């Protein structure tokens, strides 16, 4: 069974810092990996999707990389802002549906 | 506006009662999913449906039931057999493999 782990569980940074969130998975046979954002009490919003044949995807200040062979992905957030405060989840599609990590709770302080 | 609508936002269940959570999408997506989220935990898959009139059990289907009679609708029933139903329930849909997953805003279910 695919296991997805996210480190750290929580992170607090001052505004303006660049930061990296990590995601690891146990089975490299995946179709794609997605990064999501979740605000408290809300649903999830898909930020980036990386297909298994791709190495990275970029959207604005966000960049996600994928290393399938080592079972790792990173989400890089440039020039963080207080509005980036949320929980970030990664999810791996290795079969019929996505397997989710527990998320990294990010707080960006002014 | 296209999207996924979940209702109600909050739901309370009495002992021995069945309750149904609604999920409707107007994105014309074939695939729909139900996930359960507990505090500090990742999402766990309850049921999924790849096409109308067909659905499959996920990792934690016991105590739950679903139907998929219309492409737009995928309601979830939490039965009295589910002994620990308190959680945040999320419905999602996608247009296919390697496409982004879209989520509703969730239903918080609590036990009275």
Mean pLDDT of chain B: 94
Major pleated sheet of chain A:
6 strands, mixed
N- to C-terminal separation of chain B? 35 Å
Helix percentage of chain A: under 10%
Order of helices and strands of chain A: EEEEEEEEEEE
Report the count of strand segments of chain A: 11
What does this structure look like?
Chain A is mostly beta strands. Helix content of chain A is 0%, strand content 58%. In chain A, strands 2, 4, 5, 9, 10 and 11 form a six-stranded mixed β-sheet that branches. In chain A, strand 9 and strand 10 form a beta hairpin. The mean pLDDT of chain A is 95. Chain B is an all-beta fold and 112 residues long. Chain B has strands at residues 4-7, 10-13, 19-25, 31-37, 43-51, 54-57, 64-66, 76-78, 87-94, 102-103, 107-111. In chain B, the strands form two sheets. In chain B, strands 2, 4, 5, 6, 9, 10 and 11 form a seven-stranded mixed β-sheet that branches. A four-stranded antiparallel β-sheet of chain B has the order 1-3-8-7, with no helix packed on it. In chain B, strand 4 and strand 5 (43-51) form a beta hairpin. The model of chain B has no long low-confidence stretch (mean pLDDT 94). At the A-B interface, strand 4, strand 5 and strand 9 of A face strand 5, strand 9 and strand 10 of B.
